[in-house]
Amino acid sequence: MNGFLLSGGVFTPINFPLASSTGAVGINDTGDIAGFYTDTAGKTHGFVYADGAFSTVDVAGASATELTRIKNWGQVTGIYTDALGEEHGLTGQ
User: Fold this and answer.
1) From 65's CA, which of 31, 37, 56, 93 has a CA 20 to 30 Å away?
2) pLDDT, tens digit, 9 for 90 and up, residues 14-34
3) Could you give the C-alpha distances from 18 to 26, 28, 54, in angstroms and in order?
4) Residue 58 · residue 67 · CB < 8 Å
5) Domain that holds residue 51
6) How many domains does the chain have?
7) Whether 90 contacts 59, CB under 8 Å
8) How buried is 13 (Cβ within 10 angstroms: 0-12 exposed, 13-18 middle, 19+ buried)?
């Protein structure tokens, strides 16, 4: 799976470096992107792509983190899976 950004009729790939797959899910008015990627070990992490750079976002102790939305002021929302396999909503800055 690959993420893409459509802007001005042009598709630009959004792929987290060295990830086996990337999902770009949310974008704000300034072009910051929130999503998730799977690393080569099979673990899922959230990410924010802003100002041309990726940042990983993981909930401490979670087995998986996925970001689904990013607000204009940088607040993100998403879900994470705890050690028992239960999913929970998340929000943060």
Assistant:
1) 31
2) 899 999 999 999 999 999 999
3) 21, 25, 12
4) no
5) 3-92
6) 1
7) yes
8) exposed
